[in-house]
Amino acid sequence: MTESTAVRVLVVDDQALMRDGIVSLLSLEQGIAVVGAAANGEEAVRQAGALQPDAAVAARLVATLAPPPTSPPATTESPLAGLTEREREVLRLVSTGATNREIADILVIGQATVKSHISNILGRLGLRDRVQAAMYARDHGLG
Known about the structure:
The protein is α/β, with parallel strands linked by helices. The protein is built from 6 helices and 4 strands. It has a 4-stranded mixed beta sheet, sandwiched between helices.
């Protein structure tokens, strides 16, 4: 299988040893081309935008990176309208690569509340993980 037909993967992990290990293992697999490695969410979003991987391995889980929709949704209302103002603030901070602790400190709320907001955001927008949320925020003018 050539690199042009291989699944293009971006590896994301904050631990260098784990990240390097995943890169090494995936590089041995036929049909997988590791196109980048990132140490945090902000770096992952930047690299995902530049490298356009087919998938990202983040927090030791595989998550397919969905491209932004090419056609307008059936309704004229933005999906962001379904989020509360606080959830939009949290989503904007996620897009900057902020951790839950950093978001909690900035918004003066508990980390459990941040986790709850992120869970609500992912569910309401049909996203799988923080990387998709950060890319979504960037594509919709929040990042």
